[in-house]
Amino acid sequence: LGGACLLAIGIWVLVDPTGFREIVAANPLLITGAYILLAMGGLLFLLGFLGCCGAVRENKCLLLFFFLFILIIFLAELSAAILAFIFRENLTREFFTKELTKHYQGSNDTDVFSATWNSVMITFGCCGVNGPEDFRFASVFRLLTLDSDEVPEACCRREPQTRDGILLSREECLLGRDLFLNKQGCYTVILNTFEAYVYLAGALAIGVLAIEV
Question: Could you list the residue ranges that cross the membrane (predicted)?
């Protein structure tokens, strides 16, 4: 059961439709944690099954194999948890702001980073990391739009607020008119949305470690 929980969380992180993981793809350490979670969950699920078989058959060799691998997994999970705690500062507001202003290319959907940010801003009805003012300092975005647009189209308000929603006024939005764009920054919105899931994932990880002990 513990392995199945970790496996499910790992899959959710990797296939999350909002593409949130791509935003931090510039830092491989953050993505590596998801793959470790996925691998450990799969191994734990398999070994739990083998352990049950060994217990039923009373096979000492199989049980010893089970114990050694559980110990290895336990140490790997503990190491991953420590690394996640140490490098948690990589998820700060400043980190996201720096990455956005440096790499964002507007409506260029061929660029994974930009396409992911556009998806996030449309899905959550937000704009930039702190707000629309972030795009004043986005050098690549300013260059590509020749300083004609204050914000990208993804920041514009839609009805309903989905990718297929109709823009209230594209022209007024691109000019930075408050009534036609989403003013709230994505950092606050995403933090509030994922906060519960982060605590849930942490609680499940601690629970699995305790069961393994």
Answer: 31-50, 62-87
In angstroms, rounded to a whole number, what is the distance separating the alpha carbons of residues 26 and 99? Answer: 8
Instruction: Please report, as a single letter, which amino acid is at residue 140.
Output: V
Q: How far from the centroid of its chain's Cα atoms is residue 130's Cα? A: 18
- Domains in the chain with CATH codes: 1-89 (no CATH), 93-190 (1.10.1450)
Using alpha carbons, select from 2, 20, 1, 3 the residue that is nearest to residue 197.
20
| 18 DSSP assignment | T
Cα-to-chain-centroid distance, residue 160? 24
Token code pair at residue 179: 């009534």
Give the predicted TM-score (pTM) of the model: 0.58
**Tens digit of each residue's pLDDT (9 = 90 or more) over 44-66:** 788 888 888 888 888 888 888 88
Residue 58 CA neighbour count, 13 Å, CB half: 0
Amino acid at residue number 132 = P
Side-chain half-sphere CA neighbours of 27 within 13 A? 18
pLDDT in tens, 171-202: 899 988 888 999 999 998 887 777 666 677 77
Instruction: Specify whether the CB–CB gap between 147 and 119 falls below 8 A.
Output: no
Tokens 């217990």, located at residue: 55
Q: How far apart are CA 188 and CA 165, in angstroms?
A: 23
Residue bearing tokens 């398999």: 46
Q: Please, which pLDDT band fits residue 19 given cuts at 50, 70 and 90?
A: low
Q: What is the DSSP letter of 150?
A: S
- Sole residue written with tokens 């352990």: 51
